[in-house]
Amino acid sequence: MKKHILIVPGDGIGQEVTAVGKKVLDKIAAKFGHEFTYDSALIGHVAIEATGNPLPEETLQKMKSSDAVLFGAVGHPKYDNDPTAKVRPEQGLLKMRKELGLYANLRPIKLFDELLSASSIKPEILKGADILFFRELTGDIYFGEKGRKNNGDTAFDMAEYSRYEVERIARKAFEAAMTRKKKLCSVDKANVLETSRLWREVVQKVALEYPEVEVEHQFVDATAMLLIKDPCRFDVVVTANLFGDILTDEASQIAGSMGMLASASIGDGTGVYEPIHGSAHDITGKGVANPLASILSAALLLDISFGLKAESDALINAVDKVLKAGFRTRDIADSQTASNMVLGTEAMGEQVLNNI
Ligand code: NAD
Ligand code: IPM
Ligand code: MN
To answer: Site positions for Important for catalysis, renumbered to this chain (predicted)?
Structure first.
């Protein structure tokens, strides 16, 4: 198979982990006889530095004309600590999602058995946890009208959802539930928010088309608690943009670390594959970032954008073998891990490469 992949590392550890992600894609291509060609493009802080624009037109065009995008992360402490900055790296990410119509963000929370002890949650509660989040990605408070009034002393962000937007993400989630345990939890705040009441109304309606799927509706605050209390009760979870952002960072602790969680952002055009984590200023440049989220994002890319299930499984199995062999990055090591088994970003990537 011939495919063109755009690598968009972005900022901070995005650079470090996508370099590994690209290497594993290369190895898969060689092993399975595919021809992957690559290009790269700027986004975020590095794009602002080079062009003044967090999502240069050239990057957007390259994204649109590629078969898939392997994405790193955006963000820089300079902006995090300056609330008045008008141009920000994150604007590039949000504009990319909107322009590419990436309305569905799939965030699988799968615990590798070997990492049971890496989590702060008790192993007996965690064992068997396997959740697929569908986070709506192009609506909600992220994209509504925002601004200041009263001479800047009052700020507002408008949350908005249309029936159409809720329906299409709900349908994607139901379709996925049909291929899994046929359980779907829709998360909202319908006891308070009008957008959530529309959300619940639409999900209830779509549910009628999937009578085999067992549906529950939970409020977001209760869900935050249930994820830690009993993660195994969940199968597919569908929720709005902001709730999905927060709940999946929380859920990363089910999988052991932010460095383990991959995601697929899909819509009508090019799919974008990225770890759920950010640019991680605290560890940037130290060579210790966990590259497995980027590797697992590459696995999602192979499966979802290219339909290469065997190749995708080969990557996931390689990760599994490396973890079984006892290798860890710092974030997933525990008190039992011998210091010679704690690897840096590149060395962990090499171990995965050797096991493909
Ligand atoms: P973060 O996800 O970057 O980091 C949170 C914590 O998790 C940090 O302690 C970090 O060291 C750790 N961590 C994250 N990824 C890791 C990995 N692969 N291996 C080991 N440890 C890892 O979130 P933050 O610190 O809140 O944000 C930092 C910057 O990233 C901000 O500018 C933010 O806007 C941006 N951000 C971008 C994205 C994205 O591009 N998709 C996502 C989240 C945050
Ligand atoms: C994510 C990030 C982004 C989001 C930020 C950086 C805009 O946290 O991809 O999860 O909130 O969606
Ligand atoms: Mn996030």
So the answer is: 142, 189
The Cα–Cα gap between 164 and 69 comes to 26
The answer to pTM > 0.90 is yes
Quick check: is 115 in a domain? no
Cα 240-243-246 angle, rounded to 5 deg: 140
**Residue where a domain terminates, one of 216, 233, 255:** 255
We report the CATH number of the domain holding residue 194 as 3.40.718.10
What pairs with residue 272 in β-bridges? 69, 265
Tell me the average pLDDT across 150-176: 98
Residue 164 sits in the same domain as residue 190: yes
Quickly list DSSP for 172-187: HHHHHHHTTTSEEEEE
Query: Which residue, judged by its Cα, is nearest atom 7 of ligand 2?
Result: 90
ipTM over 0.90: yes
At 117, the pLDDT band (50, 70, 90 cuts) reads: confident
Are both 199 and 168 inside the same structural domain? yes
**Residue ranges making up the domain that contains 300:** 1-110+259-356
Residue nearest to atom 12 of ligand 2 (CA): 245
Evaluate: CB of 90 within 6 angstroms of ligand 2: yes
Determine if residue 328 is labeled as part of a ligand binding site. no
Q: Note the pLDDT tens digit of each residue in 14-53.
A: 999 999 999 999 999 999 999 999 999 999 999 999 999 9
Is 97 marked as binding a ligand?
yes
**Which protein residue has the closest C-alpha to ligand 1 atom 42?**
278
Same-domain check for residues 240 and 277: no
pLDDT above 70 covers a percentage of the chain that reads 100
Tokens 């994820």 identify what position? 227
**Which is catalytic among the residues 249, 313, 320, 321?**
249
pLDDT in tens, 6-20: 999 999 999 999 999
C-alpha to C-alpha distance for 314 and 292, rounded to whole angstroms: 14
The rounded Cα 119 to chain-centroid distance in angstroms is 19
End-to-end, the C-alpha distance of the chain in Å comes to 18
Assess whether 223 and 130 both reside in one domain.
Answer: yes
